[in-house]
Structure formats: C-alpha cells, structure tokens
Amino acid sequence: MAPAPDTAKRLDTQVDGAYSIDVSNVDATVLMRITAMAFRHRWRMSVAVLTTILGGLFQLMVPQYLGQAVDQAQGLLRDAAAGVSDQSAAESALLTSALLLLGAAILRGVFTMMHNYQGEAVGQLIGYRLRLDYYRQLQRLSLSWHDRVHTGDLMTRGILDIEGVRLWVDTGILRSVLLTVLIGGGAVVLFRNDPVLACVALSFVPIVGIRASIARLKLRDTWILMQDKMSELTNVMEENLGGIRVVRAFAAQAFELGRYDRISEEALTIASRRVRLFVLSTTQMTFVYFLAMGLTLWVGGAKVAAGEISLGQLTEALAFMLILQMPVRQIGWMINSIARASTCGGRLFNVIDLEPSIADKPGAGDLVLTEGVVRFENVDFSYPSWAKDDRTLAGIDLEARPGKMIGIVGPPGSGKTTIAQLLGRYYDVTGGRITVDGQDIRDVTLASLRDTVAIVQQEPFLFTASIDHNVAYGDPWAGRSSIERSAQTAQLHNYIKALPNDYETLVGERGVSLSGGQRQRLSIARAILPDAKLLVLDDSTAAIDAATERRIRESLKDYTKERGVIVIAHRLSSLMHADEIVFLEAGRIVERGDHDSLMAAGGRYAQLYELQARTGAEPKTGAEPKTGGAS
Ligand SMILES: Nc1ncnc2c1ncn2[C@@H]1O[C@H](COP(=O)(O)OP(=O)(O)OP(=O)(O)O)[C@@H](O)[C@H]1O
C-alpha cells in the first residue's frame, strides 16, 4: 500500500541530504502500512484470521462443556444417593459432554496451530521484504547521508526494527482478534448465566489489562534505551575491530575495554530496571487475578448454596477465568507490540522512503560518448557539513581527454580526493558544472557515468572473496584472460600465480592478508578491467615502490592511449610526466602547467620538487619528466 497522503507528502519532501537517523515520530499510518503489507499475502492472512476466530470459538466451548459435565456428574451422584438404578441415559450424556469437550479442545489446538503457522509465515515474509527494501535503500542513498549516520547504528536498526515490525502480525493483528473473540464471547456466556457472578469473574480483566499495558509501555521505553545501548556497543565493537591495528599499536586495549565496559554497564543497569519492572508488574497482576478468583469462588459458592446457579455454572465461570488469564495479560504485550511496530516501522520507512539526493533525473538518458572529453567548468563545492562561505573547492577548471594525463598535487586536505568524488558524482557540485562530451553529468544516468569513469580509491577496499572475484567486481562476466591481463598491467599477476590457489585464493577480511601495495595493485586491476573512458588514480600508488610504479605506468601505456587519466599524488614522480599538472591549495588551483614550465616558474610545485629531491623522498633524478601521452 502506498503511504497515506499526508505521510507521502512529508516523506516525498525528504531527501537524504536533510535526513537524520534520530526519528521517533509514531503514527497510525505506519501501522496501516504494515497491516497492508501483511494483507498483501491475502490467502495466508485470511486463513490466519479465520483460524484465529475458530480457535477462539472452540476454546470458549471448553468451559461450557466442562460446566455441563460437572452438572451431569452431580446429577449422577444425586441419583445414586436417591437409589435410582437406571443411570444409563445420564451416563451417556456425561460421556457425550466429555467427548464434546475433547473434540473442542482438539479442534482448538488444530486451529491455533494453523493460525500460529500462517501468522509466523506472514511475519517472516514481511521481514524478508523489509530486509531487501532496507538493504536496497542503503545502497541507493547518497554518500553525504552515509557520512552522517553510523554504520553500527544502521546495522542494529536493520535487525531489531525489522524484528519489531515482523512481530506485529502475530502479537498485534492476530492477538487482538483472539482477545476480542475470547473476552467478548466469554462475557456473553457468563452474563447469560449470572450477571453478578460475571462481573466478579471478569473484574480482573480491566485491572490486569491496564496494569499490563502500563508495564509494557514502561518496558518499551526501557527497550528503546536498551536498543540505543546495543547500537552504541555495536559501534564501539565495529570501530575497535576495524581499527584493531591502531588499538594495538597504541597499546590502547585497556582504554577500549573501559569504553566498552562503561556502555555495557549502562546496558546492564537498564536490563536490571527492566527485570524489576517485569517482576513487579507480574506479581501485581497475579495477585489481582487470584483475588478475583477467590471472590468468584466466594460469591459463586454462596449462589450455588442458595440454588441461584448450578455447580456447573460456577465451574464454567472459573474455567473462563483460567482461559482468560493469559490472553488478558497479553493485552500489555499487544499494546507494546503496537507501540513497538509503529516506532520500528516509522524508523524503517523513514529510511526506505528517502529520496537519494544523488539520483537519476526523471527521464535521464545514458551518457553518449563521442570523444571522451571530461571538463570541470568553474566548479565550486562544499560538503554539506561545511559553512556556506567555506568552500572545499572553488573555481576549478580542468579538462581531461583520451591519451592525455592530468596530474593533481597539493597539500593534504586541499581537495584532491574531492575532485575524484565529484567526477563519479558521489556528491553534486554546488557551483559550475562537470561535463563529459558536453553533457552535464547531472543530466545522464549514474550507471552510464560510473561505467565511464573508473576511480581507484585512496583506501583500497577488498571484499572477503577470491582474488579473481575481487578483480572482476566491476564486471562479473569478465573471462579469466581479461582478469589476468588486468592483473598483469597492475603488476600483480606473478604474485598471484605464486599463491596456493592462484586466482582462486581467498583474500582475508578486508584484504588483510595482502600488503598495502598489493591491495593497491589489486584495486588498480579492478578499476581497469571494465572499459572505462577515464581512469582516476587517487593516491593509489602511494604504497607501491617507485620501480613497480614505473612498471605499472609502462604497462598502462596501451590502456591509456585511448583513455584519459587523472593521477592524484603526493609523490611527484607519480605525476611529473603528466601533460598538465595542477597544484591545488585550499580548494583552489594556484599553479598549472607541465613539469618544465612549473619548474621554470619556481613556485609551489618547484619548491615541492626541490624538497622531495633534497630529502630523497622523491622524485628520483632518473625519472624522466613529461613524455607526452598518458604513460
Ligand atoms: N565526507 C566529507 N565530509 C565533510 N568534509 C570532508 C569530507 N571529505 C573530505 N572533507 C574535507 O574536505 C577537505 C578536502 O578533503 P580531500 O579529501 O579532498 O583532500 P585531499 O587533498 O584529497 O587530502 P589528502 O591529500 O590528505 O588525501 C578536507 O578539509 C576534508 O576534511
């Protein structure tokens, strides 16, 4: 079901650029939406509701047959005492009641089993759908949104919130149907027998129901606190494991343990509060229930003695009380389920309904490549978290074309990586435009743009998979020969051939079994495998020695003949051969030209060159400046 109009309007206006994860708005439209999701499985839900009603009705018959049987047994006793010899009619009536009771109990069991099965099945189907939608949405949302939310938080919510919604079908929808049948039907039968006794027997229902609801709502508040603590714990653990080398290097285990311990202790305090609340409310409810039962026995016993009702009717009232005890306590559970489903559903739908701030324009066509010329035209950019006047990039003009190499150098934080991010449209420019063959990259499909621009990220990320799967990540249909060719170009083939399982060797979690330089080379192989028109190397040879880097450059010669290359680097030997080198400072191009002209100008580039030559860092004197073409 589509969201109700007001919700739809509210959600439509939200784009992920303006979204924060801390949303706690709860409304009925969320519950309606989950219910509609459940009723999309029409057949299963119809069976579940029908069997819930039938199960409830058969459960209601049990006390009635029990009461009937007690009256019949009492009649038999009375007849025996009076010396009536032929009791066969009364005995067969008692047997019939006993068989009916057994039949009602069996049918109730069968229908309950069916409703549990179908309710659980629909809940699981909703969980499955939501998991897919949520995960798909996390893939769609723009990086500026991901920059602001914590991964651990998203993971915890993706698991616990989906669970909260999933349980709504059984504990919310079907439980309320069952309770209505049991309390409604039970009240009708009891009032028909004796209104006074009915009032006494049912007196515990509102008290226990309200008490259970209050307790559950309080428990829910503590559950939300608990969930937040679990998110914090996941975040700490995730960060700690991700940065385990840094933690060890700084001998910070004790500090990290302390951090984890503090949050764990807070979680324990909340858990203890939950236990106290639970035990207190359970005790109170049990007391009220047995008090009502005692009163029923007392009032009902007096009525039996006075001949106003039969012993069977008193038994019936007591049996009803036994049957209603658990469902009435579950009113609290139901109320909690409503609150939990609306909170959890609200949080999930707020993510699922977000419109990514970076998305294809309606009707956007694929990029049409003619020459493969990429231009930055007076580009300005600020990250969303930055102050308005404080731009990350300002007035950037660049042109990359096939067969040419652009080098970008500059101090840390000057905006080099940001240029690469803008090229792949991971963020949108805030001024000016970026074009490929004259087409603004915001007007073409993201998929066609990202097929055109291959970026080797500064931080190589490898998947826990075999080497060939990692290399072919951008083109899963690539044959072994293309994979090997890419690895050869990236100077990794010989190393891979020496591994125990060759290209099928598994790369450990995040590629930890490879060295930094090997990971960078694998990332280069991955980027050049698909047929992109522009290759961006973002400081992606920093961990590779100069000789290997030179070999990579040599083997890239053929590849770059018909492609543009942008090399971002701190080490000047990586880019001094470029056709044009731009020197970036505080987001502005302060110098540009080829190596010779920049050296002749004696500016920032020349100073850096001298510094690197003097300190022996780079460049090596043997490295030949500008050879023309992207080598
Ligand atoms: N996702 C982000 N959100 C907010 N600010 C960011 C983000 N990424 C980078 N920045 C900021 O933008 C500025 C430029 O960062 P960028 O990564 O482009 O620099 P860089 O020149 O590539 O640096 P380095 O040489 O250290 O890699 C920096 O001040 C950085 O703090």
UniProtKB/TrEMBL annotation:
Pfam families in the cross-refs: ABC_membrane, ABC_tran
Domain ABC transporter span(s) in chain numbering: 374-611
Transmembrane residue ranges: 43-62, 93-111, 167-189, 195-214, 277-299
Gene Ontology terms for molecular function: ABC-type oligopeptide transporter activity; ATP binding; ATP hydrolysis activity
PROSITE patterns: ABC_TM1F, ABC_TRANSPORTER_1, ABC_TRANSPORTER_2
Membrane topology: Multi-pass membrane protein
UniProt entry tagged with the keyword Manganese: no
SUPFAM superfamilies: ABC transporter transmembrane region, P-loop containing nucleoside triphosphate hydrolases
Subcellular location: Cell membrane
Gene3D superfamilies documented for this protein: ABC transporter type 1, transmembrane domain (1.20.1560.10), P-loop containing nucleotide triphosphate hydrolases (3.40.50.300)
Ranges where the ABC transmembrane type-1 domain occurs: 47-340
Cellular component terms per the entry's GO annotation: plasma membrane
Origin: domain of life: Bacteria
InterPro entries the record matches: AAA+_ATPase (IPR003593), ABC1_TM_dom (IPR011527), ABC1_TM_sf (IPR036640), ABC_transporter-like_ATP-bd (IPR003439), ABC_transporter-like_CS (IPR017871), P-loop_NTPase (IPR027417), Type_1_exporter (IPR039421)
Database matches in SMART domains: AAA (SM00382)
Assigned keywords, A-Z: ATP-binding, Cell membrane, Membrane, Nucleotide-binding, Transmembrane, Transmembrane helix, Transport
Stated name of the protein: ATP-binding cassette, subfamily B
Origin species: Thalassobaculum litoreum DSM 18839
